[in-house]
């Protein structure tokens, strides 16, 4: 019977402590998974722990290193190969339908070396903080699950069972995930502190803006008051202008009245001036006659003196 994906072990540990979380890869992720595995086949040299670091490099490149372990990735690859071989070379007399499996074409291209060159070549990850080294084999005490046939020995002491290598790696992977979670928690705390500082800066800037807005409001109120004063002065000037226009009109009327009075007086004084002119002429004529007589007298007097 074919094993299902991610059914990793069939040991006592797997029965007592089964895996509760299994990440389901999407179609696109499985295609990338197959291409990366075949393209980076040189990383799987067969040496100790090389397979683990190669799978971790692939998972980290796919950003699935927080979702799957290298053991799960290895089991996934084995299941894909087993399914492909069963469809590619079925037993005699068995009819299969490869087109019913969505990953047959990509697996066939991978196994036949027909993949394109877009898949990147990866480097095996070193022993880093994200992936701590595998610890030595541990011994854990696991209580045996009593069954109906073992009811008579239910009071027996616990049996000490040695975990195999895969189980040790699973325990180490749990520790690695815990360290990753602690690292993520520290990052979140630091980001939270940064956000709090930025929030304080924003609050200070907001307070400054509020003060500037208050100052602008005060200036606006002052401008409104000055505008009201200017409007009142403008109205006062308009009233004074109206009064000045009335005064100018009154002066013009007075001037017209004076001109009419002057014309009337001139008409009344015209005959008297003509009489005075006649009197003056007669006076001038009389004066000229007297002057002529004086000159004649002087001339006669001079002649008399000459005769004597």
Shape, principal axes of CA atoms = rod-shaped
What is the end-to-end distance? 199 Å
Q: Structural class given helices, strands, pairing? A: mainly alpha
- The rounded Rg comes to 63 Å
Which parts are unreliable, with pLDDT below 50 for 5 consecutive residues or more?
1-20, 132-170
Total beta-strand segments: 2
Region (Disordered): 260-292
Protein name: Myb/SANT-like DNA-binding domain-containing protein
Domain Myb/SANT-like DNA-binding: 26-109
Organism: Pogonophryne albipinna
What would you say this structure looks like, in words?
- The chain is an all-alpha fold.
- It has a domain at 1-131.
- 65% of the residues lie in helices and 2% in strands.
- The protein contains 6 helices and 2 strands.
- The chain has helices spanning 12-16, 27-39, 50-61, 70-88, 104-112, 165-307; strands at residues 139-141, 160-162.
- Strands 1-2 form a two-stranded antiparallel sheet.
- Helix 2 (27-39) packs parallel to helix 5 and helix 3 packs across helix 4 (70-88).
- The longest helix is centred in the last third of the chain and has 143 residues, at 165-307.
- It is rod-shaped and about 200 Å long.
- The termini are far apart.
- 11% of the residues are buried.
- Mean pLDDT is 76; it is low at 1-20 and 132-170.
